Predict the 3D structure of the following.
Amino acid sequence: MLDVMKDRITDIGPPDFKEYLPPAVKKNYGQWKYHEILEAGVLVHVAESGDKLYTVRCGSPRLVSTTSILFYTEIADKYCDGFLRFTSRHNVEFLTTEFDNVAKIKAEMTEYGNPVGGTGPSITSIVHTQGWVHCHSAATDASGVVKAVMDDLFEYFNEMKLPAKCRIALACCLNMCGAVHCSDIAILGIHTAYPRIDHENLNKLCEIPNISASCPTAAIRPATVDGKPSVELIEEQCMYCANCFTVCPAMPLADPVADGISLWVGGKVSNARSEPKFSKLAVPFIPNNPPRWPEVTSAIRKMVEVWAENARPYERMGEWIDRVGWPRFFKLTGFEFSKMHIDDFKYAGLSFKRSAQITHE
Amino acid sequence: MPKEYKTPMLDELEKGPWPSFVKEIKLAAKKNVMSNDLLGLLERSYNERLGHWKHGGIVGVFGYGGGVIGRYTDLPEEYPEISHFHTLRINQPSGWFYTTEALRTLCDIWDRHGSGLTNMHGSTGDIIFLGTKTDELEPIFKELTEAGFDLGGSGSDMRTPSCCVGPGRCEWACYDTLQRCYDITMKYQDELHRPAFPYKWKFKFSGCPNDCVAAIARADISIIGTWKDDIKMDQAEVKKYAENGVDIFNDVVLNCPAKCMKYDGDKLEINNNDCRRCMHCINVMPKALRPGDDKGAIVLIGAKAPIVEGALLSSVLIPFLNIDDDEEFEDFCDLVEEMQDVWCEEGKNRERVGEFIQRVGMGNFLEAVGVEPIPEMIAYPRDNPYIFFEMDEDEEEEEE
Ligand code: SF4
Ligand code: SF4
Ligand code: SF4
Ligand code: SF4
């Protein structure tokens, strides 16, 4: 241990990005003029200087082994002067100034298992979290659901045949590490069982006032159980958010039957046309059904298909729904509308229909 | 001899056209016993429909409070290789650009000291090294820093800032996202590595209102590029788009939220005074339209996911900042520090700044940090009459 503590360097921060920019990027930095999408997954950026930079965007499982990263470096050494980048949605991108390299990169990456696509009006990689691979909070797996959904929607990744882009994101619990709440389609792991209080250990593991304070609906009260300081739960007030579990491991909620997935629809972050908006509840609960979650994939396909069929060009999922109204969305998807769809948290009234503008479905 | 696990459930997820994470875990398992046990544990989770990870304990590297997420399986006897399986967050370079040499160095460190599994990248933007033992943390840290890398944030600290590709490869970047993201990261290394805030504190930099890094939804401080002057227009290119089948009237003009465009089948006109800089028309015709020359950024505050008090989007704090200008950037940093102080002083444990503002009121928050209220900050003025009038002494006397 002594050894590693010697000459220790701290607080150096990340490497300076300027050392990692490909020569064509360095040269034309801030001097890009326009871009075109040549085919699904292939872009060309043209600089004021006239230089052209081709980008090949490849899908990635996000969870990648060093073996695969080393394979990417081989491709980048061969065709991209030893540079590559990743996107905000976990795709890996190869940048080259030689048009001839595009087809070669595409062929080698596809062969390896990383298909090319995800540009323009398409569905690109699903931003997601850790799930059963690595998190204690998960109400569902992340990577497996994403794999199943993307396998099913693959035609929308490597072709650009949608009215607009459709951003899908997944978080395996309400903590939403991926902040999925402004996605065209959000897949959200959800618990539906109350926390099980481990009265035996609670006082040893956690601070009781912290637990009470953690609950957004004040469902937790300090109480003495079997002579031990603990907490009690007002069950009618609990909506299974797991905040209490986050601050106290003695209140687990995970349950094989009661955990599952909820689907949310119509959010966006871009400001193009309409302002950013949250995703809204489409399907409150689908039980976990690994390895392929068929009920989830088919519900998502349904949403994508009715939107693709009915939306105008450039209209994102939420913009289409805003135009035609939620009654139409529920009618066309066939999703059941229930009491659960009506908000009852803070400011709930803002989501009620407060006008006489109505369609007849 | 490592255990051999039968994984029929996971094997199913090796099929199909989308890249398979199971293939990746198996690749890592060939070289590494931790990844092999992970494969076994994950198959078990698939069968039981239940995760098998415990609440993280406090682990880290000396002198840092963030950057390592402690993780232990709840079945250590059966899967001993992953009894510890901690994650390291490593601060990514701005824009996620790499040399192959840097990536090879990272892979080499990780193959020798961890599971060989990564996320490229995590939700925070960091490089994620997924799974190692407590004893490996210091050696990894030493090798990482010697290679020029450092840990990212976690817990109640400044989280690793992230940014869009910006001027590196996007003609729409209205400021240098890569540089400013790097500058903020370097300036606040202490805040990033040593949690001292009520809760997390996130910065995201998007170069234009397309907001590719979802700053408005995900960052406490969202910095989104914009411009002040007229959209640059090339009528000849507009014509070409029309000839090539773009329905300019229906798809561009009718989609303009400001209703500020006119098209007579020949010439496109924009009333720039009314334009909201939404990006739609520019997105549709990138060769014909471009953001103006007087560029800068909007600073917005307060976005967060639902936990604890409900989800929030960021709202406008500064409608225009010439953030590429060093002096204006310094002023912005001063304001950031002012806000940190107020929030640290008054904020409750696990209260994000957006929730804090909801609780104390935006008006009071602005007053505390010394920012003048302006109409750009609101969608509409209050529609309830529950006003806390604050009359200053003189006025009260006059009334008497
Ligand atoms: S979303 Fe929840 S379960 Fe998933 S990784 Fe984040 S905290 Fe863990
Ligand atoms: S799960 Fe959420 S609502 Fe239920 S008791 Fe815990 S904190 Fe409260
Ligand atoms: S946010 Fe704007 S500037 Fe940044 S990459 Fe996206 S489109 Fe380009
Ligand atoms: S940027 Fe948006 S608001 Fe401005 S003219 Fe174009 S479509 Fe209209």
